[in-house]
Amino acid sequence: PAPTAPRNFKLTVESSTEIKASWIAPLKLNGVFKRYVVRYGLSKDGMNKKVYPTTTEYSLTQLDEFSTYYVQVHAETAVSGSASSVLSAKTKEDAPSSAPVINKQETKAEDAHTIRVKWNEIKKEDQNGFILGYEVSYKESGTEKVLSFNATNTNTIITRLKPFTSYCIQVRGFTSVGKSPLSPCSDVQTLDKGPSHPLNVKVQAVSSVSIIVTWEEPAHPNGYIRAYIILYGTSKDVQSYEQKVTRSTRKRIIDGLNKYTTYYVKVRGRTLKPGNSSEVFNVTTFEDSPGPPKEFRAQVVTGADVHLTWKEPDNSNGIVRFYYIKIYNTKTGSQVGNVRNQSADEESDMQHHRRLIRGLKYYTDYTFTIQAVTIKPGEMANATARTEEGVPSQPRDVTTKLDKGGISVRWKDPQDHNGIITKYSVYFEGKRAYNTSFQHNHEIVLDETSRSTEISVEKLKPGTKYSVYVKAKTAKGYGTASDPVELDAPSKRPPIPKLPQVVEADVTTTTITIFLSPSDDTNGEIIRHEIIVELLGTARARRETSALPEYIYGFKEAQTNGDRFYIAAMFERRTLPVEFVLGNGKTYGGYENVPLKPGTRYKMYVRGVTERNGVSIQGFI
């Protein structure tokens, strides 16, 4: 078996580059001891370095300063034993091992007496502790007298220098333990005489087209300041415009600027020579209303849908947050719907924006306006489009009137033509409640100027309920039907039924059996059938008339009136029997079917009855 783990493992920091590790031998070696293996590194996963002591302590040397090391130990016999737990310890601080690097581009003279120095931090791996500050040393080139001071940041200003003089500048950092080496000498020459830069320069926007610049006198005028010069422009590197102000002025409003534009501003004084400029300040003028969107187009894509496209304004004058879209009926000038808002980020692609307007009216001229919106709406752009034709809406106020000769139908235009109406069609759909299989349809096609039509009664079926409606048509087809108007075509006299057939074998002295056929309901619903008997008398008697009298009564009343015609039976609606015994003495529908006289000639008729406006209409015989 393998050795157990070393015991009482501990670390002691000896210096910035040395850590001593110590432990007690394993409780059980379980074999012949060979050596110890100490693994260490700068992370738990990176303990790649190894040493192989044979004693129970070992000093790890040549370590990195101010760095945390992770250490573990195990014993070896013929096999590796169990490892101790991983311990960590941090080496002590030391003086930095390399110098800061002076930034030569940023280290420069600001005026005849001042040099601004800027340097980079010491490389992390060379700091060897916490950098408490920097020592800045300087001397006139070619001399030995060195002046120095401490700084806590990575930049500082050296003042009270001689004009137009070359200085050697060096920097070093320090920890609590010591100082780093000095950086190489960086030679910088102060400027010639002229004012130092104005102090406390402030730049502030006051409107979308103006800014205000304020400043204080330079720390070192270096003579009589005759004027201040404000340099400004839209480039940080080159300020193309300038304004000169008198020496007593400490502020100036600059106007006539572009809206929502960033300007770079610096100020310098002037004696006989121009002075040093201040640092460059930037300021952005306020937002304002934008110009009109570009290339605003309205295109009908299908039916009553219009696709709007546009580009951002040339002069946005701010951040375009969204767009206002309004729609007007070109003919009436009235606005259609509410203002539509569209985010500037919505439906956009490489500065191209789009919006689909749905649900407009067909065949209508529309004017579309659009405004970009920053902090307020800007100038409008507009576009026009006419939607395609569609089918019209339903004709209105359809009325019908029944005259003696026919039926007149009138209507009004559809509310929405949705195009050019080319024709109207009037439909008559006939049905009969008493005959569900019956259907009779009729259509009248009229030109676009018509608002009424007539149809003769002969073209309609008597006793039929018609649903009358009207449709208008454009190039796109027929629109919605009008609300239907119900119309009843009046019933007519029922047609002649088939002649009754006598069953010769069933004739007696007082009865005659006959087969009956009902009247056809072509001219209206048959509400009843009447069985009419004509008494002809003896065999030699002749019938004198071919038409039935206007009024025919039951047998008794006919006898009283001396009529030879009487009603022997009446059957409601379609209850007419196939076989009927005339003279059987029974009562049918309130009429007595009296026995016939022996040896007497009779003639029998079957008559259907329809109804018009509550009045019975007797059929033909």
Looking at this protein, list some descriptive labels.
five-stranded antiparallel β-sheet, mainly beta, about 45% strand, about 625 residues, 1 helix
Task: Give an overview in words.
With 621 residues, the chain is mainly β. The chain has 1 helix and 49 strands. Strands 3, 4, 6, 7 and 8 form a 5-stranded antiparallel β-sheet that branches. Strands 19, 20, 22, 23 and 24 form a 5-stranded antiparallel β-sheet that branches. Strands 35, 36, 38, 39 and 40 form a 5-stranded antiparallel β-sheet that branches. It is elongated. Residues 5-94, 100-193, 197-288, 292-390, 391-492 form the Fibronectin type-III domain.
Using DSSP, what is the number of strands? 49
Rg, alpha carbons: 59 Å
Shape: elongated
Strand content: over 45%
Secondary-structure content class: mainly beta
Please work out how many helical segments DSSP would assign.
1
Residue runs with pLDDT of under 50 for 5 or more positions: none
Q: Report the helical percentage.
A: under 10%
Biggest sheet features: 5 strands, antiparallel
Report the average pLDDT across residues: 91
Taking the alpha carbons of the first and last residues, their distance comes to: 133 Å
Topology:
Layout: E1 7-13, E2 19-24, E3 35-41, E4 49-51, E5 57-60, E6 68-76, E7 80-83, E8 87-90, E9 101-102, E10 108-109, E11 115-120, E12 133-140, E13 147-151, E14 155-158, E15 166-174, E16 186-189, E17 199-205, E18 211-216, E19 227-233, E20 241-246, E21 251-254, E22 262-270, E23 274-277, E24 281-284, E25 294-302, E26 305-311, E27 322-329, E28 340-343, E29 348-349, E30 352-357, E31 365-373, E32 377-386, E33 396-402, E34 406-412, E35 423-432, E36 435-447, E37 452-456, E38 464-474, E39 477-478, E40 485-489, E41 501-502, E42 512-515, E43 528-537, H1 555-561, E44 565-572, E45 579-582, E46 587-588, E47 591-592, E48 601-612, E49 615-618
Antiparallel strand pairs: 1-2, 2-5, 3-4, 3-6, 6-7, 6-8, 9-11, 10-11, 11-14, 12-13, 12-15, 15-16, 17-18, 18-21, 19-20, 19-22, 22-23, 22-24, 25-26, 26-30, 27-28, 27-31, 29-30, 31-32, 33-34, 34-37, 35-36, 35-38, 38-39, 38-40, 41-42, 42-45, 43-44, 43-48, 46-47, 48-49
